[in-house]
Amino acid sequence: MLKIRLQRVGRKHDPSYRVVLTDSRKAAQSGAVIENLGSYNPRSKKGETRLEGEKIKEWITKGAQVSGTVNNLLVEKGIIKGSKINVLPKKKEVEKAKEEAPKKTEQSSGEQPTPVAAEAEKGEAAAPAETPKEEAILAQ
C-alpha cells in the first residue's frame, strides 16, 4: 500500500521533514522513497511548508493513503478539503484513579484478609505432597 507520510531529516534537536510517497511494507526497513512531494520545517517561525499539491492530489486519486499529520498539513494549506484528524492520544482519566485509591486503603484497614491472601492460603492447603519416587527423579 502506498502511503504519503513525513520522513525525518535534519540534525539532533533540530528536525525537519520531507513529505514522501513510500511503500508502507518496505519503507520501514529500507527507507526507500518513491517520490519526494515536499518539505515541512516545524522549527521555523511560520512553520515553513513546501508542498507539491498537484502531485499529492494525483497520488491520492491513485489510492495512496495519507498519514494523520500529513492530512492535517494538507487541510491547513487548502490542498484537500475535510477536517483535521486528532493524532494525539487521548488523555487518561487521572481523577478517577485518584478517587479509587483512597477507597481501597479504607477497605484494607479492616480485619478481613484480602482476596489474594485468602487464595494463597487455599493453594497451600490444596497442594498434594510429593511422593518419594518424584523426589528421586527430581534429584537426578
What does this entry look like structurally?
The protein is of the alpha+beta class. It has a domain of 76 residues: Ribosomal protein S16 (S16 Ribosomal Protein, Chain: A, 2-Layer Sandwich), CATH 3.30.1320. Helices cover 41% and strands 24% of the residues. It has 6 helices and 5 strands. It has a 5-stranded mixed β-sheet with strand order 4-3-2-1-5. A hairpin with a 2-residue loop joins β1 and β2. The model has no long low-confidence stretch (mean pLDDT 80).
Count of alpha and pi helical runs: 6
Please provide the count of β strands.
5
Please name the fourth-level CATH homologous superfamily of the domain at 2-77: Ribosomal protein S16
Biggest β-sheet, characterized?
Answer: 5 strands, mixed
What percentage of amino acids are in beta strands? 15-25%
Let me know the average pLDDT: 80
**What is the string of helix and strand elements?**
EEHEEHEHHHH
* CATH third-tier fold name of the domain at 2-77: S16 Ribosomal Protein, Chain: A
Class of the domain at 2-77, according to the CATH hierarchy?
A: Alpha Beta
Strands side by side in the biggest sheet: 4-3-2-1-5
Low-confidence stretches: none
| Percentage of residues in helical conformation | 40-55%
- Counting copies of identical and different chains, the oligomeric state is single chain
Tertiary shape: elongated
Examine the secondary-structure arrangement and name the CATH architecture of the domain at 2-77: 2-Layer Sandwich
Q: Whole-number radius of gyration?
A: 29 Å
